[in-house]
């Protein structure tokens, strides 16, 4: 089920002969209600599609709450949320000054609160109303971990408001009795456990990925680095002097060190160092010829590789049909960027896996119907996410020792590594064979 929250406040209305949708609402900071044409981004006129209208109203409401003037605190939940979001944007920043992912957590959590109680005085917030917000998130399909995280964020806002003298601290004290949800409580669903990516499914992606994307997958599978560390990698962050260690045969081996400037625990003052062995060095070497600060892996380059592969595989003669380069958009709405994001990296992997499914379905279709062939192909090739490669490395390293796995993953605590490392049932099976 999609993680959708209830519709924002106000009333949706249809106007004019074309029945276009408008939204009558009083936005945070406005003196009175007004009618807003629900014109999705890229549209010239208000939409006639109710689903698009609802989505646009939700987007406008969230933007109005997040961007409201913090100085105009009126005592309502929505104005307090705007005040706290402004503080979070200044507080949660990476070393380069960009907002960290925690800002999005704050915005999403407060969106749930504001949609239910936009004009309620913040002083009237209590445990019953917080549980109501939490139940709304449960009803909309949020998993337990997300519900608990968002509920804690809402409580933190009221704690902060008490510390700043904006609200009576007793408001926060009254919310503390709302504890974290336990498994199955109030119908909350559990999130899926992240498993290591199966080797055959990783190979399926490699077989249908453009060369640059395939190298990103291989690099992450060799090193266990986080997806964000893969996409942010630049030549300037790789120390090619590194360290010299002895291999299993006693020979000296130089290991490069990748020290990402921006990483998950940088705000805590911790440094991250990722060892790059001979295989990773061979794979990465061509990409280190770029400008020092440029991203090693470029989405634009991947798009060019994909286009060349399609052109090479075409069956229509070049003097017929579309010619290469003739149907390119001069100013595309969403041109490929100069570096991946974790989201676009995951999307590119899914695109390669879906291409693998299509190829396998074409083989299956020789012996069965196309619908059944597609179902069989989808069952044979599972979609996986980049962070599952990190789990695969953790599981493999943990078979040697948990301390080794912690060092490879860059964890300060072995307990964190246990989240990533799949239990090795072979050890339990060996004990059972001897003692059971």
Question: Layout of SSEs?
Answer:
Blueprint: E1 11-15, E2 20-25, E3 34-37, H1 50-66, H2 77-91, H3 101-116, H4 127-139, H5 144-163, H6 169-175, H7 199-208, H8 211-223, H9 227-232, E4 238-246, E5 252-258, E6 274-276, H10 278-284, H11 299-313, H12 342-364, H13 370-380, H14 387-398, H15 402-409, H16 414-420, H17 425-435
Antiparallel strand pairs: 1-2, 2-3, 4-5, 5-6
Helix pairs in contact: 1-3, 2-3, 3-5, 4-5, 5-6, 7-8, 7-12, 8-10, 8-14, 12-13, 14-15, 15-16
How would you describe what is shown here?
The strands form two sheets. Strands 1-2-3 form a three-stranded antiparallel β-sheet, covered by helices on one side. The chain has a three-stranded antiparallel β-sheet with strand order 4-5-6. Helices cover 48% and strands 8% of the residues. It is globular and about 70 Å long. It is built from 17 helices and six strands. The chain is mainly alpha-helical and 436 residues long. The protein has a domain of 177 residues. Helix 1 packs across helix 3. The N terminus is likely disordered. The chain starts with 10 loop residues before the first strand and ends with a helix.
Order of helices and strands: EEEHHHHHHHHHEEEHHHHHHHH
Low-confidence stretches: 1-6
Percentage of helical residues?
A: 40-55%
How many helices? The count is 17
Radius of gyration: 26 Å
Inertia-based shape: globular
What descriptors fit this protein?
436 residues; mainly alpha; three-stranded antiparallel beta sheet; 17 helices; 6 strands; disordered N terminus
